[in-house]
Amino acid sequence: MPHRIILFRGMNTGGVRAPVAEQRAMALEMGLENPRTLLASGNLVVETDRTTVALEAAIETEMARRFGLKIAAMARTAGQWSSLIAANPFAKQAAAHPAQVLTMIMKAGIAPGAVEACRALTEGGEAVEAVTLKTGGDVLYFWFPDGMGQSGIFKKATPRLLGMGTGRNWNTVLKLGAMVGV
């Protein structure tokens, strides 16, 4: 059965909570196989034949019903995750400092002008930061040489600016890949 990585936007931030044991139980009750979680920050791996769109819709509906959470879910296949890893334009930086590279997986593509708007946020004396997008328009990659906490982009880039998505640092991207055999 094919693996799916499911990422929840904003899990365990700002009071949005769904215990990982309960997420796994929910997945089993939904007929998803071999549910596993990584950290307590919205990373669920399952095995299912459901399409990405159907899986995202079912997960979002069940999260609302079970936990009272209106939360976006982004699902990716193992093949898509492998492509995401291979396409990292900051591979050299990720190898040296994986916590300084962020991959943002988008729900419905990147908002028009998002990359340019992010680049404009770094003007005015901040350390040089870089942002690029994967061909296909569904993944943004960020490099924060001074860390995310010091970043103008990280503090100001909202769903309105970028589109709906969720970010994971490179350490988490690789751990999720290992969970699905990538």
How are the elements arranged and paired?
Elements (H helix, E strand, L loop, with lengths): L2 E6 L11 H10 L3 E5 L5 E5 L4 H16 L5 E5 H9 L4 H6 L4 E6 L7 H8 L8 E4 L5 E5 L8 H5 L2 H4 L2 E5 H10 L3
Antiparallel strand pairs: 1-3, 1-4, 2-3, 5-7, 5-8, 6-7
Describe this structure in words.
The chain contains eight helices and eight strands. The protein starts with a strand and ends with a helix. It has a four-stranded antiparallel β-sheet. Strands 6-7-5-8 form a four-stranded antiparallel β-sheet. The protein has helices spanning 20-29, 52-67, 78-86, 91-96, 114-121, 152-156, 159-162, 170-179, and strands at residues 3-8, 33-37, 43-47, 73-77, 101-106, 130-133, 139-143, 165-169. The chain has 182 residues and is α+β, with helices and mostly antiparallel strands. The radius of gyration is 16 Å and the shape is globular. Helix content is 37%, strand content 23%. The longest helix has 16 residues, at 52-67.
* Total DSSP E strands: 8
Can you tell me the residue ranges where pLDDT is under 50 for at least 5 consecutive residues? Answer: none
Which structural class should the secondary elements be placed in? alpha+beta
Largest sheet: 4 strands, antiparallel
Order of helices and strands: EHEEHEHHEHEEHHEH
> How confident is the prediction overall: mean pLDDT?
85
Instruction: State the end-to-end CA separation.
Output: 15 Å
Task: Determine the strand fraction and express it as a percent band.
Answer: 15-25%
Number of helices: 8
Percent range of helical residues: 25-40%
Q: Name the strands of the widest sheet in spatial order.
A: 2-3-1-4
Radius of gyration: 16 Å
Shape field: globular
